[in-house]
């Protein structure tokens, strides 16, 4: 019996703003929304979150915060996703989403608190529909699936979005989450920030697939690759996916192809496993420079505008750092406050012992 073709599949790649900073308005219906105000807002947001990131690296190097995971080179993804999300949507972040969290409303001071090990940095304000940062790779994906299932059950016309790296796509959490989202047609958008390195593991050793986007096919929904250094492409793809989810048309996987310009974290030395030539090549594709070129060529963005933006950003970050460093540390006793509603006898004993020790040290 001859073989029959049951179904043919294809995966597309989207780029709206190319590496030369030129906009292709034929590629997406949303291109007409890219006004001067919108483009400058995207640029200003990318400059802001890179500056927040650079300050975090400086704070870590001077011993003022702990290990930190840089987002350098991935700003276009975070700005594009943040712009596409609505306040009513829910966001489940992995650990490399600092900029996205800030653009969703998290205070910069809170970001620095989190990376300093202060658990108050994990507290999300009541009016922001974000979950706390997930450090374990991929474990937050099933949480996002649960939220999406709840939204569908309640007929709540919102979407859920979760971000993760290429390394997470090798985890069972990812595949279980994708399967559930497909089977139950959940309003969930999976955004993979494929920066091509999971610590020291290149994406070529992560998967034999030509793309990560095509993994969606196995689970019965659409996958799309987008140029992750193109903020307009990311915004377009994510906005369309979120709208589809809110209409009850199911999930989507978006692979944002980008590059991690910095080390995996401040505890890593990426020069041990990748070449300077590779990094230099991707620096030429810097998402911030790409959009800056466009607004300089088409909207008269000047050196004066750039200087004013830098001064504003520097002032905002300086205020956040001061507020962070002026915040009194928590009492060690507060480690017991959020564990259980009622402490067990053993924990009560430990708390009393610590309290006596602290009082003794104060005298």
Description:
This protein is of the alpha/beta class. The protein folds into 2 domains: 29-330, 3-Layer(aba) Sandwich (Rossmann fold); 332-363. 42% of the residues lie in helices and 10% in strands. The chain has 11 helices and 8 strands. α7 (231-246) links the parallel β7 and β8 (252-257). α1 crosses α10 (303-326) and α5 (141-153) runs parallel beside α6 (172-183). The protein is globular. The model has no long low-confidence stretch (mean pLDDT 95). Pfam families: E1_dh. InterPro entries: Alpha-ketoacid_DH_E1_comp (IPR050771), DH_E1 (IPR001017), PdhA/BkdA (IPR017596), THDP-binding (IPR029061).
The assigned structural class equals: alpha/beta
Strand content: 5-15%
Strand order of the largest sheet: 1-7-8-4-3-2
The largest sheet is: 6 strands, parallel
What's the total helix number?
A: 11
Q: Give, in order, the helices and strands.
A: EHHEHHHEHEEEEHEHHHH
Alpha carbon gap, first and last residue: 89 Å
Shape: globular
Radius of gyration from CA coordinates: 22 Å
How many β-strand runs?
A: 8
Regions with pLDDT < 50 over 5+ consecutive residues? none
The CATH topology assignment of the largest domain is Rossmann fold
Give the mean pLDDT.
95
- Share of helical residues: 40-55%
Sum this structure up briefly.
This protein has about 375 residues and is an alpha/beta fold. About 40% of the residues lie in helices and about 10% in strands.
Defining traits:
363 residues, alpha/beta, Rossmann fold, 2 domains, 6-stranded parallel sheet, two-stranded antiparallel ribbon, 11 helices, globular
